[in-house]
What does this fold into?
Amino acid sequence: MNIQPKQNLATQRLEPRLLEHHSACETVFAPIWLEETRLVPKKSKGSFRGKYTDPKTGLRHIGESLNEHGLCFHAAFDPTVKHFVSHPCTFGYINRHGKESKYSPDKLLIRQDDQWVFVEVKPEDKIYNIDFYNDFRYLRGLLHSIGCHLILTVDTVIRREPFLSNLKFISGYAKLIVTEVQCQSLLDFVFYNQGCSLSEALKHCQALGVTPAIVYFLLHHRRLFCDMETIIDRPTALFHPDRMEA
It folds into this structure.
């Protein structure tokens, strides 16, 4: 079965929504310092509190909103992210009005090249507020002055469907106990068939006496690929990374 992907699925990742897409970050020089580690406030009645355990590191993350919680699944799946931290720290700084303020990033992403990227999560309708825009741009430049990067991502990016539901589904198999021989058997099957459907992969696993869940394990760990923008179902096309188009 020769299936050609419509896009290079190996690049699928969270695309941060920046306030300034095409312009360089303007560095701001002003006093900035590190405060004590931020404590997550106690859950109030009616508020959301999501818990997530990173399969890579075993670190437990607490999301204070659906957006923060959803971002954990994106960060764990993003191939450019080595690991990440929720509510990593609090900065003290002098704001653009000359007054002392505090800022606590929602996430810290540690990239594969060891670059530190702080992430601010906001509802999309809030980013069009001119005061927020100016404050964020100032803070972004201030963090840039100490060698840190700050990006903004919004709810419509994080919670887009079915991408997020697919991430949550395959993440449930991230710690599946399998052998490399079992993985390689399925990978070889997909490779030599130049792609196959999920249904065919599941049948191949059953014929070998291997748990079909290994398909989702390989998808999560990016050793197999599929179009995450469509619902993962039995007709879903699977691809081997060595058969991906550049």
Summary: The first strand starts at residue 32 and ends at 34. The chain has a mean pLDDT of 86.
